[in-house]
Amino acid sequence: MADRTLFIDRLRDGLGQLLAENPRAILLGEDLADPYGGAFKATRGLSTRFPDRVRNTPICEAGIVGTSIGLSLAGWFPVAEIMFGDFVTLCADQLINHAAKLPAMYGHRFRLPLLVRTPTGAGRGYGPTHSQSLEKCFLGIPGLQVVAMSAYHDPARIPAACLATGQPTLCLEPKLSYAQPLGSETLTLRPLSADPLAPVVVTNFSGDPATADLLVVGYGSLPRLLEAVLPDLAREEINVTALVYAQLSPLDGAPVLSLARAVRRVLLVEEANADFGWTAELAAALAEHSTGAALRRLGARNRVLPAAAEAEQATIVTPDLLRATLLALLRQ
Amino acid sequence: MPLLPPPAPGPIAACHPSPPGDPTPASLYAGMARIRAIETAFLEHYAKGRIKGTVHTCLGQEAGAVGVIAALDLAQDFVFTSHRGHGHFLAYGGPAAGLIAEVLGRSTGICSGLGGTQNLHWRRFYSGGIQGGLAPIAGGVALAQRLENSSAVVAVFLGDGTMGEGSVYEAFQLATANRLPVLFVLEHNAIAQSTPTSLVHAGDLAARAAGFGLAVAAVDGTDPYAVLHATRTARAALAATGQPQFLQLDTVRLGPHSKADDPRTTGEIAALRRRDPLLRLALALAPEDVARTEREVEAETTALFAAAFAAPPAVPLEEPAHG
Questions:
Q1: A234 contacts A210 by C-beta, under 8 angstroms
Q2: How many inter-chain contacts (A to B, CB under 8 Å) are there?
Q3: Which residue intervals of chain A bear CATH 3.40.50.920?
């Protein structure tokens, strides 16, 4: 499959399709408009096609998300872009105290469709304030959905799927995956359902995923690591099943629990440092349900992300580190 | 607690209606007295421990509520306000029974008792407990009006204390850059919780708004007619020019910040009472009409509170799946 679509192109197609199909869909953010087309080019061409509905804003993340909330209250379907995931701190009040609260605190849980997209993750040497994965700050907030795109989910379908939930959603886009082809040439991908947000079951062997030697669970940039590591393990006859999530919070841990009971060796991966993170929530679920599976977590080191490339590589999860951790878990 | 405690000795300035287009002094007085009676009753019930939580009353600021909202087109205009929003809610026409039940945590509250005093929503009225947080949201509603070629206007009440929040200035710049139909109303009572505004803010607050390109006006916020006329002018200018507006109401906070937390001396407050909008407007009415209106609003308030106390307590919403 030499012609596999790149993540960023498919995402851009999806945003264009959303604007074409929904006359009340609207994109807001910094530098979205042509000819620039967004810092990562996710909106290139769209302001030319939809000049009123692809709108450049000043640099004001709280204002961008606040405006989006107001548009949603007025019956629109806003998609806000926060240029780097690090900047979600600047709109945290709008997400947590406003978007997540308004429907419930006004007592009648009305729909508030609203999508805030943001590129996350390290590996490009952007330094400590342009490389983070801050999703842990937004997990477990009642009324706020957190979703992560991945190369194994269809980025074109996720914006519309998030808006269709009627819930304010923070959507992470693993920026290293933007230039990655979607899907996989070597691994078998099986979405758990037709829902674009459903977890995808990945195997490096043919047969029942529950018969694997190892289970890996993660999201976002995990497919890049799996593509680098799982084919080699297959050659060594180590069967691995992975579960790649899109909807992180609220979390449906049932697929992990059922596979963990069968596979018995589980590695939970996240791109940020794993302390107090999404994997900790899953680990708690595994413990509470007494799966008895051997369990490890793998994330970045507990330090501020360095700018220098070598130091950054020594901090984040690399294919080598994933491979070594899986082999250690196998011997456990 | 009487509705009209005595002011310090000294002159009380009259208000200035412009008939025939204006509402009568009697009708504006009734609107302000109703707000005053309900707010006063909230404080009395809190003092007796009959209500839990908190409350922020707008005693002294009633003229801003009734004056601004009388100039709006309630069939289409939006109102956004803050923690001190009961008066705006009542002036907007929000049901008093629903407001009282909401503050009392009853299931019959306007937001099922779940939002409480600071978080009210009814029709196109919204309040919120985060300082300045609703300002950019109001701008988003205004952007929708512009995209839909609606003639609706979005009024946003702010306090002078809120002028410390960055989100307000993000909302200003988005409003002017996009020529949004927003009328920002600054209720300047010169005190934020316990801190005099002059101690922590430098410069002129309205000049800040002007610097963002908003059309700025300032008016005596304790004269409901002055407020009404200024709001009409601002609303008309917004419609004619598309330039977002900023109206500063110089007003007084006659009550505590919340329940009983006012560091000002009784003498200071008695001096402010000479600007009490009810006392000022009462000069335009016969004393017996004032007394009758007070009896009526107090009787209505007593009945509304009795009904609210008798209502069942609020129940939480169901948790969503996987919550």
A1: no
A2: 120
A3: 188-331
Give the domain ranges of chain B.
57-93+118-284
Mean pLDDT of A59-82: 98
Q: Report the first-to-last Cα separation within chain A, whole angstroms.
A: 37
* Dihedral pair phi/psi, residue B319, rounded to 5°: -75, 145
Give the class (CATH, top level) of A188-331: alpha beta
H helices of B203-249, in order, are 205-211, 224-241
Element (H, E) at A217: strand A214-219
* Residues of chain B contacting A257 with CB distance shorter than 8 Å: none
Put simply, the answer to whether A67 touches B135 (Cβ < 8 Å) is no
Question: Each residue of B221-273: pLDDT tens digit?
Answer: 999 999 999 999 999 999 999 999 999 999 999 999 998 889 999 999 999 99
Record: contact A63-B109, CB cut-off 8 A:
no
For residue A67, give the nearest of B109, B136, B317 by CB distance.
Answer: B136
Bridge-based pairing of strands B191-192 and B182-188 is unpaired
For residues A64 and B125, what is the distance between their CA atoms, to the nearest angstrom?
22
**Delimiting residues of CATH 3.40.50.970 domain(s) in chain A:** 7-177
Q: Is the dihedral of CA A323, A325, A329, A331 positive or negative?
A: positive
Fold of B57-93+118-284: Rossmann fold (3.40.50)
Is the distance from CB of B145 to CB of B238 less than 8 angstroms?
A: no
**Which CATH homologous superfamily contains domain A7-177?**
Thiamin diphosphate (ThDP)-binding fold, Pyr/PP domains (3.40.50.970)
Q: Is B164 helix (H, G, I), strand (E, B) or coil?
A: helix
pLDDT at residue B322 in the model: 54
Give the Cα separation of A2 and B231 in Å (integer): 65
**CB atoms A67 and B140 under 8 Å:** yes
Residue A2 has pLDDT above 50, yes or no: no
| Partner-chain contact B137 A69, CB within 8 Å | yes
B107 touches chain A (CB under 8 A): no
User: Inter-chain contact A78–B138, Cβ cutoff 8 Å?
Assistant: no
Output the pLDDT for position B318: 83
The overall pTM is greater than 0.90: yes
